[in-house]
Design a protein that fits this description.
It catalyses: orotidine 5'-phosphate + H(+) = UMP + CO2. One of its GO terms (molecular function) is orotidine-5'-phosphate decarboxylase activity. Residues 18-268 form the Orotidine 5'-phosphate decarboxylase domain. Keywords: Decarboxylase, Lyase, Pyrimidine biosynthesis. This protein is α/β, with parallel strands linked by helices. It has a single domain, classed as Aldolase class I (TIM Barrel, Alpha-Beta Barrel). It is 42% helix and 15% strand. It contains twelve helices and eight strands. It has helices at 5-16, 27-32, 39-53, 65-68, 71-86, 102-113, 136-144, 161-164, 174-189, 237-241, 254-257, 264-279, and strands at 19-23, 59-62, 91-98, 123-126, 148-154, 197-201, 222-224, 248-252. The chain has an eight-stranded parallel barrel, surrounded by seven helices. Helix 6 (102-113) packs parallel to helix 7. The mean pLDDT is 96. The structure holds orotidine-5'-monophosphate (OMP). Orotidine-5'-monophosphate (OMP) binds at residues 22, 24, 63, 95, 125, 155-157, 200, 202, 223, 225, 228-230, 251-255. Orotidine-5'-monophosphate is lined by residues 22, 24, 63, 95, 125, 155-157, 200, 202, 223, 225, 228-230, 251-255.
């Protein structure tokens, strides 16, 4: 891979808009799609979403849990979906939400970020309960291979509120502290377009309450889940993210897939249109 993830993401935004199509093969969706609730169904679901998203959206985001639930057969299915996406101009975020001490994170880096791994993706989601410093090797590997990382900061689920708005000794919230760490990391790496280390900032939240200054995030990729099934509206992207809206990857999974396979392409086009008109 030649250029940095942030630069490739900026290029994709320019070509295909700011939508991320989540690939979450929930058992109920497999049934609705007329697919078996097993690894072969999850594979087919993922392949069809990749096919529909290619040329229509910037990014796809397979949720690893919905493949992992089938054990080794699920990982074989996921590898097939990732390989298919690699043959398109889509960027792929592996939603693996890995987080551990540094030496173990290095091994996760070998799984998701190494050029020789069948699970390699363009970017991965990580949790930093062990501190962003524990991800030093992981982030270095991402940069060295032109890949990216999205760090959970303010997640879309209501249960996270208590922990993520708790105050650090500095007085900043935990979420704002993670934002600061990521900003320092991107500044140290000197990215000139979008950085390669991004943040997860859910669309279901009042980010002001988390003490997050969106004006500082104009060149930090923001993965924004919560649209559709979790209640956020595409028409609210500009209001929710303000000055950082141009860096937001608007992410939706169930709401794109719920109309069945025949409706996916239209759902993607409609979502992309709504996001673009809100950001125009
Ligand atoms: O990292 C994520 O993508 C993520 C972070 C977050 O704060 N909230 C969140 O919902 N997600 C993921 O985004 C997807 C949301 O799916 P839908 O609610 O169906 O659009 C799921 O795969 C979640 O695991």
């Amino acid at each position: 891979m030649t250029s940095a993830f942030g630069a490739r993401l900026a290029d994709s935004f320019g070509r295909a808009g700011q939508l991320c199509v989540g690939i979450d093969p929930h058992p109920y969706l497999l049934t609705e799609w007329g697919l078996p609730v097993d690894a072969s169904g999850a594979r087919e679901f993922g392949l069809r979403l990749v096919d529909a998203a290619a040329g229509r959206a910037a990014v796809v985001k397979p949720q690893v849990a919905f493949y992992e639930r089938y054990g080794s057969a699920g990982f074989v299915a996921l590898e097939a979906v990732l390989a298919a996406a690699r043959d398109t101009d889509l960027l792929v975020i592996g939603d693996a939400k890995r987080g551990d001490i540094g030496t173990t994170m290095d091994s996760y880096g070998d799984a998701w970020l190494d050029d020789s791994s069948p699970l390699r993706v363009d970017a991965v989601t990580v949790a930093t309960y062990q501190g962003l410093g524990a991800n030093t090797g992981f982030l270095a590997k991402a940069r060295a291979t032109g890949r990216g990382v999205f760090v959970l900061a303010a997640t879309s689920n209501p249960e996270a509120h208590l922990t993520q708005t708790a105050r650090l000794a500095s007085g900043a919230t935990v979420a704002a502290g993670i934002v600061d760490d990521v900003l320092s990391d991107n500044q140290a790496a000197g990215s000139d377009t979008l950085g390669s280390v991004g943040l997860v900032l859910g669309a279901t939240l009042d980010l002001g309450e988390y003490g997050i200054d969106l004006g500082r995030l104009t060149t930090t990729p923001i993965l924004a889940p919560g649209f559709g099934a979790q209640g956020a509206l595409y028409s609210d992207v500009a209001r929710l993210y303000g000055p950082a809206a141009g860096a937001v990857l608007v992410s939706a999974s169930r709401s794109i897939a719920q109309g069945g396979p025949a409706g996916v392409a239209a759902a993607i086009d409609e979502a992309n249109r709504e996001v673009a008109s809100c950001l125009a």
